[in-house]
Write a structure and sequence with these properties.
With about 140 residues, the protein is an all-alpha fold. Helices cover about 70% and strands about 0% of the residues.
Length: about 140
């Protein structure tokens, strides 16, 4: 093998190494973006958990003395738009308790439930909290 051939091979190998290092650098940058993304998701998860806890506590205070059955009480907390909320006795007691705030309360709860349902759908999370589409990342959630 001549010196020119060796130089050509060395140049080719050098180019491959440089390209490989470039790709590794891109990979490292991607990993940094994913770390940032992970931190952002953790923040959102924390905020959503806080909001969920707050909502549950508000519903607990709201339903106290309105719903005598523990089973119904638990079901109503778990399903803010479930069928038990339409029980005439509970609906009447709730309307009496909230008075003028009843209609705004209903609108707020319905909007909140719809937003959570849409968010779960976009994230691919079922009602139990399990991820059923981990390979799909909605465009609206891509941060970088």
């Amino acid at each position: 093998m001549s010196g020119i051939e060796v130089a050509g091979i060395a140049l080719a190998v050098f180019t491959i190494v440089v390209n490989g290092l470039g790709r590794m650098t891109e990979g490292i940058q991607t990993m940094k973006h994913w770390k940032k993304y992970k931190r952002e998701l953790e923040k959102y998860a924390s905020r959503l958990d806080t909001a969920s806890t707050t909502c549950s506590q508000i519903l607990t205070l709201l339903l106290n003395d309105i719903v005598p059955s523990d089973d119904d009480f638990e079901s109503m907390i778990a399903e803010p738009l479930g069928p038990l909320w339409k029980t005439p006795v509970y609906e009447e007691r709730l309307r009496d308790r909230l008075d003028q705030s009843y209609k705004p309360y209903l609108r707020t709860i319905q909007t909140l439930a719809e937003d959570v349902k849409e968010l779960r759908k976009k994230l691919g999370i079922d009602a139990s909290g399990a991820v059923y589409r981990p390979w799909v990342l909605p465009q609206s959630l891509i941060l970088c």
